Amino acid sequence: MHAVIAGFLAGAASGVIMGVISHILFKLRAFRSSLIVIDGSFFFRTIGKEAGPGLVAGAGLIIHLVTSAVFGAVYFIATPVLGFDPPQAANSAALISLYIFVLYISMLFVALPISGEGLLGRRSGKNSWLEQLVLHAFFFGGYLAFVRILV
């Protein structure tokens, strides 16, 4: 399988895991926010429409799935620039963890502020940075496993 497609699929699968865990922990009140709700709410605010919880969750899941898939593919677009071939990039836990760390930092300083959650996601609570770290650790584990299978 072509590495970019494998990365896309691995990112999508890992994003589903990350998003569902986020939403479950939000529903259990262990987390103060849900990535699915954040993505869906941002979407409806952006288009100027109101939506109920079901539509917000549905849109948020789709958005999270697509963005995760794209970030999964970007890994295999970027790694050749750094001199890694796909099998090497797929088997490098260190390189994948560095990439996921960059995604985590981007989430805290770019995505969450743009979505209205504030710097480090503070609108969702003072521990939002920690919640995001836990979720990105799940994304890392899933992505690492899936790309090793698919590449």
Compact description:
With 151 residues, the chain is mainly alpha-helical.
List the helices and strands and how they pair.
Blueprint: H1 3-27, H2 35-47, H3 53-78, H4 86-90, H5 93-114, H6 128-150
Helix pairs in contact: 1-3, 1-6, 2-3, 5-6
User: What is the β-strand count?
Assistant: 0
Shape: globular
pLDDT averaged residue by residue = 95
CA-atom Rg in angstroms:
15 Å
Give the SSE string: HHHHHH
Coarse structural class? mainly alpha
Count of separate structural domains:
1
Report the span from N to C terminus.
Answer: 6 Å
Low-confidence stretches: none
How much helix is in the residues?
Answer: over 70%
Described by strand count, sense and barrel closure, the largest sheet is: none
Q: Helical region count?
A: 6
Strand content: under 5%
